[in-house]
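Record type: monomer structure entry
Structure origin: computed from sequence
Chain ID: A
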Amino acid sequence: MSRALEKIDIIYFTLFPWDNRYSSVSLSFTREFAKRHRVFYINPPFTAKELITQFRDSKVSSRLGDQLKHRMRYEKIPGFPSNVIAVHPPSILPINWLSEGNMYERLHTWNEQVVLNTIQKLIDKYKIERYIYLNCFNPSVAATLPRSFFPLLNIYQCIDDMTQEVYTAKHWARLEEKAITTADLVLVTSKKLQRLKQPLNPDTYVLHNAVDASIFSKTLEAKYSKPEELKGIETPIIGFTGNMDGSRIDYLLLKKIAETHEDKTLVLVGPTNSDDYLKVGLDKMPNVIFTGSKDIHELPKYLQHFDCTIIPFLCNQLTESIYPLKINEYLFSGKPVIATNFSDDIRSFEEVIYLAEDHESFLGFINRAIKEHNADLMQARINVARNNTWTHRVEQFWNIVQEKLDHKVNTHELIQR
């Protein structure tokens, strides 16, 4: 990295609050950025509705004093160095329920100004001069900064297909298109997303999700006793970690896994954000355990005791665009992985995972994966994951940024001539 790049600050506005219970792309990038740069991590603002309906939630109640005074708040992220400053903006209006039109546009402008004012105050307070503005998947407000803010680059990060979720498809997908066309650079997490977004902006690059080696190396290096939920389990364990919702997870497949592999225990680690698992009766099955949400630092304690891991995704338009965080987390832990064939990106791992074309083959791969597991296969998985760490991704990020900045300078010089 050049010395000029090392002097750059990063203003990072993201959809994912720093105090979210599970891992996020933006927090993982921030941890790496902070090794050389000041990072200003801006949480998504609460809506007025959230202040009313969620005021008992500690994430809201701890900030309620500032929110009621419509005042921004500076915060320290535990475990991060002092050059990472978190910011929580004042609240905005809930407007996604409105139809497109004058009322929506007027209120959207008001919401946008709340966040822009927050960023301007931040710039003034910390005397930020040379900086990159990075928006991670939050096109609803301040998707890119106006030229009057003088960012070196406006960068937009896209991590999912917004057109495939009802809430985001209503307004955010349209706002994202505008963000992509106005950004200097667009970063996407999958090949499918690149195909979708590159026609809007030719400077669209793939930066796949990655793994935090400092966390998941502990699966191999540390010796953990069984977590409370796993105590007493004597059978082989089929494990899943991550968010469970009806648009991604194939719950019928999970039910078949539990029925077919009665001699094993299916352990699902993560939040359940839909009732689809109830519809298939997964909660009634004796060999299925739901642990609920776990902090990312807790995951190695579970992974260490899994005999194989699974990615039981549906194959649909949404999952075609997904490069799951968990694939490299599983591989870095050395565990066998069985996955459905849901995307181009998951197919790129076919040499080190078991890729199932249908339910029947998925069910068969579970026994095979456990039986074939050995030191050589484990090392092959780890080697692949070592090339997919967040450290590697941030190196790729700065290479892309350097090239774009050089191009801007050269173009400016040509215009001046």
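Annotation 1: The chain has two domains: 3-210+389-416, 213-386.
Annotation 2: Confidence is low (pLDDT under 50) at residues 413-417.
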